[in-house]
Inverse folding.
């Protein structure tokens, strides 16, 4: 084989893998958006066949021969090509250790679990979801055993999804957060609570959708290439390439803020993926780095931009126009304080920036214990409720508002949750660096996110998956990751709001 032929085959392989990803992604997307609710078995049938084909393509002799040849000729490849070979090789090595029938059964399980989770959440019926959840966790332990028999399964999944993320790193990180945030929460609790009555009431979905679409324009998200639909749990999907991105949100009648911040959050994911080098489309470099890096971008737009005093001042006239009866007689400062009200509650998605990390710690510890065999899936609801009481002082009313609230486990995502808190902390360090050259506060107050996006594109977005996450972060930070930048930010912001 000649190098030229091999690199052409490399591009062809990735193009075909993208097509499978596109087809499977749109089928799943249809199922959670507009598809009728009784067709999950049909979806599972098609997805099982497509994932078997995808598995065969990925682990077949042609792919192995091609990647082995390219690895041998690494010196003749570009940086991009070498990274493609590395990322594909990593996937191949992982999938190759899992028997094909078990891989397909797992994909089928995920489709079924997603369907049952939606019903179980709606009906507060953990028992219906329990056997599928048990099978999902067991499969995760088994797959980790195939891939890395000597490694702790939970640590394997943390590190598999984002290299360098380990239980040791998470434990150290959460220790820092606990040490700094628990006293902060206590001090806030001793102060008079912020009034948030102006953002609570009855807010029809249509106006919330109007606000979401308007925010997409403010963020400069190209609606020709990015949609916005409603789902039980908000997410962002890239279908086939970053030229087709789908965001979702969820409209709660009692407040417009969860959906508003979900659109900002998912908007951050969408912007990251959609602004990568267009040449990376239909390759494994497309989109953005997973987990912590992706969540750093979503939480950046949601919190550092969206929950800033300046951006709320900018938003305020639009919010008053949409909700004159609720917001007609208050000030932008009232809304800024309301959307930053610190109050422990049952919901992760609606949590404020300070208590958010406690929601993550609950999930992190429960997943770790289930995968280690220390906690039975049957006992998860009780363990969940006990930790919410202990860490947040919250009595969880039922499993719908407790252990069933998130969609991650039915999607097979284990080891994902720490990435939200890590991402928030990475974001604080990005913000500090960005402020050296961008007048961030003036930009958000004008609603002009272009200079902010330009910085993120230049330093992060354009590269897609070209660099390893740690390498990219170190280049930007100019040193190691420092979680105290995040805790300093929180202390300063909430000392100001609560007058501590
Ligand atoms: Zn996210």
């Amino acid at each position: 084989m000649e190098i030229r032929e091999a690199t052409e085959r490399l591009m062809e392989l990735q193009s075909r893998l993208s097509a499978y990803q596109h087809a499977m992604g749109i089928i799943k997307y249809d199922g959670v958006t507009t598809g009728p609710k009784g067709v999950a078995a049909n979806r599972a049938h098609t997805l099982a066949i497509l994932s078997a084909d995808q598995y065969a393509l990925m682990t077949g002799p042609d792919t192995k021969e091609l990647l082995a040849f390219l690895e041998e000729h690494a010196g003749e490849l570009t940086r991009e090509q070498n990274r493609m070979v590395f990322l594909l090789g990593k996937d191949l090595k992982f999938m190759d250790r899992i028997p094909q029938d078990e891989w397909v059964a797992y994909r089928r399980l995920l489709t079924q679990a997603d369907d049952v989770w939606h019903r179980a959440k709606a009906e507060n019926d953990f028992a219906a979801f329990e056997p599928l959840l048990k099978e999902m966790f067991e499969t995760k332990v088994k797959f980790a055993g195939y891939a890395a028999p000597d490694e702790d399964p939970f640590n394997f999944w943390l590190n598999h999804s984002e290299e360098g993320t380990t239980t040791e790193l998470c434990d150290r990180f959460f220790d820092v957060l606990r040490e700094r945030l628990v006293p902060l929460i206590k001090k806030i609790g001793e102060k008079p609570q912020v009034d948030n009555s102006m953002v609570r009431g009855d807010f029809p979905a249509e106006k919330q959708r109007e606000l979401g679409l308007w925010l997409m324009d403010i963020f400069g998200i190209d609606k020709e290439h990015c949609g916005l639909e409603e789902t039980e749990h908000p997410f962002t999907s890239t279908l086939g390439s970053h030229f087709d991105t789908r965001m979702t949100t969820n409209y709660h009648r009692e407040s417009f803020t969860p959906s508003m911040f979900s659109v900002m959050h998912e908007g951050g994911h969408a912007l990251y993926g959609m602004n990568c080098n267009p040449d990376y489309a239909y390759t494994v470099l497309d989109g953005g780095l997973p987990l912590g890096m992706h969540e750093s971008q979503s939480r950046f737009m949601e919190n550092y931009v969206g929950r800033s005093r300046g951006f709320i001042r900018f938003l305020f006239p639009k919010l008053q126009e949409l909700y004159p009866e609720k917001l007609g007689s208050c000030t932008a400062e009232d809304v800024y304080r309301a959307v930053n009200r610190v109050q422990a509650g049952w919901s992760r998605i609606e949590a404020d920036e300070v208590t958010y990390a406690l929601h993550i710690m609950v999930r992190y510890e429960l997943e770790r214990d289930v995968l280690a065999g220390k906690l039975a899936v049957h006992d998860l609801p009780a363990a969940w409720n006990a930790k919410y009481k202990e860490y947040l002082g919250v009595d969880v009313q039922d499993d719908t508002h407790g252990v069933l609230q998130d969609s991650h486990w039915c999607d097979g995502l284990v080891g994902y949750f720490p990435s939200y808190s890590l991402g928030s902390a990475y974001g604080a360090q990005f913000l500090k660096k960005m402020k050296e050259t961008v007048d961030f506060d003036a930009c958000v107050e004008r609603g002009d996110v272009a200079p902010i996006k330009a910085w993120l594109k230049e330093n992060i977005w354009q590269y897609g998956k070209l660099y390893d996450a740690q390498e990219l972060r170190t280049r930007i930070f100019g040193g190691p990751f420092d979680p105290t930048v995040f805790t300093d930010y929180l202390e300063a912001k909430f000392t100001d709001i609560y007058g501590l």
